[in-house]
Design goal:
This protein is mainly beta. Helices cover 5% and strands 38% of the residues. α1 (51-54) links the parallel β1 (38-40) and β2. It starts with 37 loop residues before the first strand and ends with a helix. The model is unreliable at 1-30, 249-255 and 459-467 (pLDDT under 50).
Length: 479
C-alpha cells in the first residue's frame, strides 16, 4: 500500500497500469474550504483589514467563486485604497435576519465602504438581512453596483458623518438593482456642524417593503417609474411607501433637522404612497434645475400623501402634488419656490403659506372643516384657480404686504366663513382687486379678476327676513 500526499490528504491504493479515480466529494484542499459552502465571518475588521477582499476573518481566507459568505454581526470592510473592489464570492449576506425596524438601534452587521472617493464597490449578489451598507469615508462619494436583495430583515444605508464637515459629508450612490420584500432605511446622525448624509437611487428597483428617510438625511431620486395595469412595477424607491422624516430624534440625535427629497436635475415623479412623520420638517429640492411631482392618480388605488404630524414643507424646487393630502394635522408651505396642489385634499388642520407661492389648481382644495383655516404670511402668496379651494366655513387670513398676497384667477368666486385682512375682520361682503366687480376693492391684498365672498351670517339673514315679513304685514293691515 502506497500513500500519495500532494496537498490532498487522500488515501488511495493504486493498481499497476490502472487509472486512479477519486470522487470529487473526497477532495479537501489543505488550508481552504470546500466549494459550494457557506462561510461565516468570525470577527470585526479593524483599520487596515478587509475580509471583503482578503478574507481576513473568513475561515479559509479570501472569498472564492461558488461560496456564499455571511457577516452576521460584524463590520466587514473594503480595502483602504484607490481601487474599485469587486466581491469574488457567489453572494454576501449582511445581517442575521433580525426584524426590520427603520427607527430602531444601529445595526451591528455593516459593510463599510473605505475606498477613495469616486470609486465603485460591486457585489453581484448582496443580501441585506437586517444589516447595513455604511458610507465610512468622510467628505467622499461612494457607489455600490450589482444587485441587492432585501429580505424580511430589510436593510439600512448608514450615512453617519462622524464629525465630517460640509453640507453633504457622505454621499452614497446606489446603482444596484434593489429587489425583495424588505424595507430600506436611509439613516445617520447629523453632527453639530450641519453635516448630513445623502443617498441617491438610480436603479429601476422593485423592492416592496418601503423606503424610510430619517431626519437629517437626503434622498435623491435618480430614476423614473413604471406603472403596469394600474400598479407600480418599478421606481427608484421600489413599490412600497415613501416615509419622509420617519422616527423621532433621540437625545443623541438632538441636532437632527428634517429629511430632504431631491430630484437629480430632471423632472421626477413619485407615484408611491407618501407618509410624512418625524418632526414634520421636510425639504423638497433639486440638485440643479429639475422638479418634483407626487402623482399616483393613474394607479388602480390612487396614492395619497399622509400627514402623520404637523408638517412644514420647505419647497426650493418647482413642485406639484396631485395626490390627495390626508391627516388630522396642519400644513405649512415654506421656501421660495412654487407648489401646486391639485387634489381634493382632506387634511383637517390649518394651512399656512409662510413663503413662496401656493397654487390651488382647478378642481383642487385645501383642508376641510372649521379648523382648516388658511393664513397667508407677509412673504407668502396664495393663488386660487378654483372656487372651491377653501372650506366654506374656514377663516382666510391675509397679512399686510407691499405686493398682493392673494391672486384670484378669472371666474373664481371663493366663499369663506370669515375674512381677515391685516388686523381687520370681515363677516360679510365681496372682496377683490380693481376690475373684479367686488363690493370692496382692495389692491393691497388682491390681484386678478376673481372675488372672495363672505356670506351674510345666517342669523342676520333670518332677522332681516323676519323684519321684512313684519313690515309687509303691517302695510297690509294699514290698508
Amino acid at each position: 500500500m502506497h500513500r500519495i500526499s500532494r496537498k490532498w490528504n487522500v488515501l488511495v491504493t493504486p493498481t499497476w497500469g490502472s487509472t486512479i479515480a477519486c470522487a470529487a466529494t473526497n477532495f479537501l484542499i489543505a488550508g481552504s474550504v470546500a466549494a459550494a459552502s457557506t462561510i461565516t465571518q468570525n470577527a470585526t475588521d479593524t483599520s487596515g483589514q478587509s475580509s471583503f477582499t482578503n478574507g481576513t476573518h473568513f475561515p479559509g481566507g479570501a472569498p472564492v467563486s461558488g461560496n456564499d459568505y455571511v457577516d452576521p454581526q460584524y463590520t466587514i470592510r473594503t480595502v483602504d485604497s484607490n481601487a474599485s473592489p469587486t466581491f469574488t464570492g457567489a453572494s454576501l449576506t449582511i445581517g442575521n435576519g433580525t426584524a426590520f425596524s427603520a427607527g430602531g438601534g444601529a445595526p451591528t452587521a455593516i459593510l463599510a465602504l473605505k475606498s477613495a472617493t469616486g470609486n465603485t464597490t460591486t457585489v453581484n449578489s448582496l443580501i441585506l438581512a437586517g444589516g447595513a451598507i455604511g458610507q465610512a469615508t468622510n467628505n467622499s462619494t461612494q457607489t455600490v453596483a450589482g444587485n441587492i436583495l432585501l429580505n424580511v430583515g430589510g436593510g439600512y444605508l448608514d450615512l453617519s458623518s462622524n464629525g465630517a464637515s460640509g453640507a453633504d459629508a457622505r454621499v452614497l450612490n446606489i446603482t444596484s438593482l434593489v429587489s425583495g420584500s424588505g424595507g430600506l432605511a436611509v439613516r445617520g446622525t447629523q453632527t453639530s456642524n450641519g453635516s448630513v448624509g445623502t443617498a441617491k437611487f438610480t436603479g429601476t428597483n422593485t423592492y416592496s417593503g418601503g423606503t424610510y428617510v430619517l431626519g437629517g438625511n437626503k434622498l435623491i431620486l435618480g430614476a423614473g417609474n413604471v406603472i403596469t395595469s394600474g400598479a407600480i412595477t418599478s421606481s427608484a424607491i421600489g413599490t412600497g411607501t415613501l416615509n419622509l422624516g420617519y422616527g423621532t430624534a433621540t437625545a443623541s440625535d438632538s441636532n437632527l433637522t428634517g429629511a430632504s427629497l431631491l430630484d437629480d436635475g430632471s423632472a421626477r415623479t413619485v407615484v408611491n404612497n407618501v407618509v410624512i412623520g418625524g418632526n414634520g420638517a421636510i425639504t423638497l429640492a433639486s440638485t440643479s434645475t429639475g422638479s418634483l411631482s407626487f402623482d399616483g392618480t393613474a394607479l388602480t388605488t390612487p396614492s395619497t400623501v399622509s400627514l402623520a404630524v404637523d408638517t412644514v414643507l420647505t419647497v426650493s424646487t418647482t413642485t406639484s402634488i396631485k395626490d390627495v393630502i390626508t391627516g388630522n394635522h396642519s400644513f405649512t408651505k415654506a421656501g421660495s419656490s412654487t407648489i401646486t396642489l391639485s387634489g381634493v385634499n382632506s387634511y383637517t388642520g390649518l394651512t399656512s403659506i409662510n413663503a413662496g407661492k401656493l397654487i390651488v389648481a382647478s378642481g383642487g382644495r385645501l383642508g376641510t372643516g372649521t379648523s382648516a383655516g388658511v393664513t397667508v404670511g407677509s412673504q407668502g402668496v396664495l393663488e386660487l384657480s378654483t372656487s372651491s379651494g377653501i372650506d366654506d366655513a374656514a377663516t382666510l387670513t391675509i397679512a399686510t404686504a407691499a405686493a398682493p398676497n392673494a391672486i384670484l384667477d378669472a371666474g373664481v368666486n371663493e366663499r369663506v366663513g370669515t375674512l381677515v385682512l391685516g388686523n381687520t375682520t370681515y363677516k360679510s361682503g365681496t372682496f377683490g382687486a380693481t376690475g373684479s366687480g367686488a363690493q370692496n376693492i382692495n389692491n393691497t391684498y388682491f390681484s386678478g379678476t376673481g372675488i372672495i365672498t363672505v356670506p351674510e351670517p345666517a342669523s342676520i339673514a333670518v332677522v332681516a327676513c323676519t323684519g321684512m315679513a313684519l313690515l309687509m304685514r303691517r302695510r297690509r293691515t294699514a290698508q
